[in-house]
Amino acid sequence: QVQLVESGGGLVQAGGSLRLSCVASGLTFSDYPMGWFRQAPGKEREFVATITRTSSYTEYGDSVKGRFAISRVNYKNTLYLQMNDLKPEDTAVYYCAAHNRRHGLTSRRLAAYAAWGQGTQVTVSS
């Protein structure tokens, strides 16, 4: 049974930073591309970032490009999202997700991800 557990969310002022973590279990973590998504109240879940199995390639949503960085440490089964220069519009619940195919390609699509964490709240005050 795959489990993804996010942590690191909280309340921060605009311009501040947070680092989210996601610890995975129940899967061979290094076999799967991973992603971060977020969902603000009243909005659809949206793509934030994705990373290949070996960290050779990363991709970001337009609204976070240049401010957020996704990374992973495979021997720790852990995915990270470093968020800098946070803005009030970054306020959302952040979810990590595991791709639905071993050795699959990274994707921005929600449907490409089979396992999701419970989410961690990030609130940015102005």
User: Helix coverage percent of residues?
Assistant: under 10%
Q: Shape from CA axes? A: globular
Q: Give the count of helical stretches.
A: 0
The averaged pLDDT comes out at 97
Condensed summary:
The chain is mainly β and 126 residues long. It has strands at 3-7, 10-13, 18-25, 34-39, 46-51, 58-60, 68-73, 78-83, 92-99, 113-116, 120-125.
Task: Describe it.
The chain has 126 residues and is mainly β. Helices cover 0% and strands 49% of the residues. It is built from no helices and 11 strands. The protein has strands at residues 3-7, 10-13, 18-25, 34-39, 46-51, 58-60, 68-73, 78-83, 92-99, 113-116, 120-125. The strands form 2 sheets. Strands 2, 4, 5, 6, 9, 10 and 11 form a 7-stranded mixed beta sheet that branches. A hairpin with a 4-residue loop joins β7 (68-73) and β8 (78-83). The termini are far apart.
Q: Which key terms come to mind for this protein?
A:
0% helix, single chain, mainly beta, 11 strands, 126 residues
SSE blueprint:
Blueprint: E1 3-7, E2 10-13, E3 18-25, E4 34-39, E5 46-51, E6 58-60, E7 68-73, E8 78-83, E9 92-99, E10 113-116, E11 120-125
Parallel strand pairs: 2-11
Antiparallel strand pairs: 1-3, 3-8, 4-5, 4-9, 5-6, 7-8, 9-10, 9-11
